[in-house]
């Protein structure tokens, strides 16, 4: 492994990115985040700045075009959409790890074996910090999709961002799905998909739920009673049976994606979609030709060698911070991000139990 210039901020950032990919995808590493559901729903996009500008267009009827008689002038008509604009500042996801003096000397050692071992140890720490940063970004995604993103600063006040999902888009089903004898998942999903029609003009046909919720859906007595015994050996409902009974083009996604608390020993995930909750949206996560939302990945202020002021760089950044007075060294991992929803009217959440 080549000698790492600790105070070349760009080189350190590339070192962390490279090792993050290698460690998380190797045996015993973390998950490959390209397979996770969150980034497919709200993709992360580069943003050159620290503020995001969101334009919402309320959907209103446009009526019918008039007929024109021969020789007459065409009627004049002007489209008057109702536009709303919101400006938001990005939030910093930023933390630093104190570097032990012995570790620092090992990283700068002239012994290539010792240096390589120390740099791999650093890569593991940096990977954990990058994963924590991405976990917080994923948490922001799902909180925004639930309607309100709370930002709790440990050393300042807290704020909440309300994305304006209509209040009627959070129905609770009449009979809990855990009551297998009388629950009716088919009618519940039909009703959940239809709640967005008044606000968006469309039916939401893609339903997301945890595997436990999915299991309770398939065990419903009412669903089993709808089945025919023709061509079946086992009279137990399948997901395809549910989809056949829903609106044409409907999809069901079962997922237990989540995050694990620091130091957790029971390996129990905090699921992004809790058991008993169902997230409904458009089939391809788009509305009126654009994504229902995005994660803006903006500028981070970092130090530059020999400069007397910070430099703004786009995306997650890594850097060493050296306090010449107290002889302290910190390793910093930081990003500036914000979730934007362009179509909150195309999102709904059902409570099954």
- State the low-pLDDT regions, or none: none
Q: What is the residue-averaged pLDDT? A: 84
Q: Which structural class fits the helix and strand makeup? A: alpha+beta
Tell me the number of helical segments per DSSP (H or I, 4 or more residues long).
Answer: 9
Outline the biggest β-sheet: 5 strands, mixed
Radius of gyration: 26 Å
CA(first)-CA(last) distance: 54 Å
Q: What oligomeric state best describes the polypeptide chains here?
A: single chain
Short recap of the structure:
The chain contains 9 helices and 19 strands.
Give your account of this protein's structure.
- There is one protein chain.
- This protein is α+β, with helices and mostly antiparallel strands.
- Helices cover 27% and strands 27% of the residues.
- The protein is built from 9 helices and 19 strands.
- The chain has helices spanning 9-25, 37-41, 101-107, 112-145, 185-194, 197-200, 211-218, 221-225, 239-245; strands at 44-46, 51-58, 82-89, 91-98, 148-152, 158-162, 206-209, 251-254, 258-259, 270-271, 277-281, 286-287, 290-291, 293-297, 299-302, 311-314, 317-323, 328-341, 348-351.
- The strands form 7 sheets. Strands 1, 4, 14, 17 and 18 form a 5-stranded mixed sheet that branches. Strands 8-7-11-19 form a 4-stranded mixed sheet. Strands 2-3 form a two-stranded antiparallel sheet.
- Helix 1 (9-25) crosses helix 4 and helix 3 crosses helix 4 (112-145).
- The longest helix is centred in the middle third of the chain and has 34 residues, at 112-145.
- 28% of the residues are buried.
